[in-house]
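Risk mitigation, structural track. In case the binding assays with manganese (II) ion fail to produce interpretable data, a predicted complex structure has been prepared as a fallback.
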Amino acid sequence: MFRKDVYIDRRNRLKDKMKSGLVLFLGNQESAFNYPDNTYHFRQDSSFLYFFGLDMPNIAGLIDFESGKEYLFGNDFTIDDIIWMGPQPKIKELAAQVGIENTEPINHLGNYLRNANNQERIIHVLPFYRGDTIIQFSNLLEISHTEAENYISVDLIKAVIEMRSIKDKHEVEELIKAAAIGYKMHVTSMKMAKPGILEQEIAGALEGIASSYGSALSFPIILSQNGETLHNHYHGNILEEGRLLLTDTGAETNLHYASDNTRTFPVGGKFSQKQKDIYNIVLNGINHGTSLIKPGVTYLSVHLEVAKILAKGLIDLGLMKGNPEDAVREGAHAMFMPHGLGHMMGLDVHDMENLGEDYVGYDNEIRRSTQFGLRGLRLGRKLQPGFVLTNEPGIYFIPDLVKKWKAEKINSSFINYDKVLDEYSGFGGIRLEDDILVTETGHQLIGKRIPITIEEVEETMRS
Ligand code: GLY
Ligand code: MN
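Fallback model:
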């Protein structure tokens, strides 16, 4: 946990933004995977962690914006709990660790909320993303699940996003720790990528690194020779000499700050010329994208500039035609990169995505596009100092998508479909991903850069 003043300060700033009613932050519950006592790895809710810091199930935090009072609801461990799970500080002691004076048993929460409801006070909650939280909230207020949705507060969503979007120095330190774990994971993946081993052997080793240095993975590992499938979680293939292996992975620190990086490299350690040609386009794209990151620039414009670099490279190779500006305006490059350039990162790998992607990544000035590819851009709005985001361009050869575009003559004036299908089916996909902090004057890479040039990658794989 951070020092208690960090949490006191965050709650005070939230109180300054929210004038009326009260806010309830329900911590997460344990979640069973095949029987009640066999639970998934516990993950606390990120906004709960942000304001209350405590990393355990069955607690709730409440702030009354009118009286200014703050409460922690939870129960002390019984002797049965202690027998199975060991001793725990009392709720009073836990509350004191994060600067809260008032504590109540968890079974007082329902009464407290129903009283507030009966007095027609506003109860603000963030959007629900787990079924059991909706059930818990509905039971507390004795309302239906549908009625529970009425308590989701846009004012609260906006206030929380405004705060969590700007990472303070404590958070940046944690993100750098997460990056150091991610670095070890990626270098291990490069060194293990030898012909004949199973993808899952590497995936298992990476998961072990994440757990041994931090809390866990920040998302399920994407690791595949079929990297053209953007989120490929199947790890059953045997590595074959010369194929590309895409590894997209990251870790959470013990405080749950994330890393998220992608590297793509050839099994056996030597890029072919054909692979180098595509790889260097993506590398130019990521480097150019990072060079543009600074306060006041929209991430939409960075996405589009990177798209032009990709289109220009693909035109030079004869896979696309026409000029890059027109191709990108029409969205033709999106057949090769059907996703956005990046997303916010912090306590969640896609930071605050549960609060609503458009609230996090867009505003009144920059609206989400409906164009294929561009509509997948999670962050489009103007950058501010303190934002942490990913820069993750890619070029993918997705045979079903190419065949569909060819059959429907989509952007046919910009794409040489026959060359793509004849020469690049089975190529796979290349994605490169770095995590970037927006500073007062520009940008800073989070942590040490994972080997990325052809020479650095081949050298790492050799050593
Ligand atoms: N690293 C996975 C993603 O950004 O979607
Ligand atoms: Mn990412």
